[in-house]
Amino acid sequence: MKVDDYSQLRRKRAILVSLVFAFIGIAVIFISLNTGSIRLSPSSVMNALLGYGTPEERMILYDYRLPRIIITVLAGSGLGVAGAAFQGVSRNSLADPSVLGINSGAAFGLMIYFTFFRTMEGTATLFIPLFTLLGGSVIAGMIMLLAYDRYRGLLPIRMILVGIAIGAGFNALTLLLSLRLDEDSYAFAARWLAGNVWGRDWIHVWTLLPWIAVFIPLIYYRSSTLDLLTMGDETAEGLGANVNTNRFLLLVFAVALSCASVAMVGGIGFIGLASPHIARRLVGPSHRHFLPVSAMIGFVILVLADTIGRSLFQPNAVPAGVVVAAIGGPYFLYLLFSKKK
């Protein structure tokens, strides 16, 4: 088979898989709109979406469920793409914002936010992604500093090991700071750390949307660079890529994307690990093809986990992070052991 024919086949496969997951995503969103403490029939949901239905149905749909679902779609997409960027930069399919410690830095930033504002409502929430980004950037900076070799640049394997160690330290600091909070703030922080989707108002949607709209296209624009980095530093440099500069920029984009996402949905892990891995198996190693699929898989997982957590365990809803961890933990072990074969 010619190279052009093979590339065309991969592109068609990527389009087909994207359409399949788009359909699955729409189905999952529609199911999520129907479920909750107050159940709405499919016909009631359609009537409310079209501007009909009762005032109560429109209030439930537009004031409560729709903003929350949009946030999970945005955050799930962001985590899926950020995970793919981290894996490409580190050349390790086990890399993930939570594994690298970026989520731990975001949690630390949230604790710092609490010391200034002590509220999760109103316009103050616009600053939450900035504080989580600050915490994530501190960890990312420490990782790059400690994983840098003056002769070989950033070492991907060392990035993973350093990230795990620093993340553990910041988890301890976050726990220490959380013990100083008042009762209500501590309860919120505990739910956030468990991966609770707390962003459920339109102001939270508008807070998260610019971050997703900016950084996902920036990472996708550098798809070819990610392809080169996965080949190895020497090969990438031989093909004309500035390895250290591109790795630094992609890390900045991925940190910003992951920190903004977890700011609204809590410390959810494994989405950034599983989504790129599944997408890569379905459509091949080209980032241009599997980044969109990874984004869609990410939001399908998060919307589905949030729907399961708040519908199957009533009256006490389970955080989406717990549902994702129940699936992601065994998947992480599967990846770990499959790497040893």
Question: SSE layout and pairings?
Answer:
Elements: H1 3-34, H2 42-49, H3 55-90, H4 102-116, H5 128-146, E1 148-149, E2 153-154, H6 156-178, H7 183-193, H8 202-221, H9 223-230, H10 233-238, H11 243-265, H12 271-283, H13 287-311, H14 320-340
Antiparallel strand pairs: 1-2
The helix fraction, in percent, is over 70%
Q: Sketch the topology as an H/E string, one letter per element.
A: HHHHHEEHHHHHHHHH
In DSSP terms (H or I, runs of 4 or more residues), the helix count works out at 14
Strand order of the largest sheet: 1-2
Report Rg.
20 Å
Mean pLDDT: 82
Computed structural class: mainly alpha
Anisotropy-based shape:
globular
**Share of β-strand residues:** under 5%
pLDDT < 50 stretches: none
In whole angstroms, the N-to-C terminal distance is 30 Å
Major sheet size, sense and barrel closure: 2 strands, antiparallel
Tally of DSSP β-strands: 2
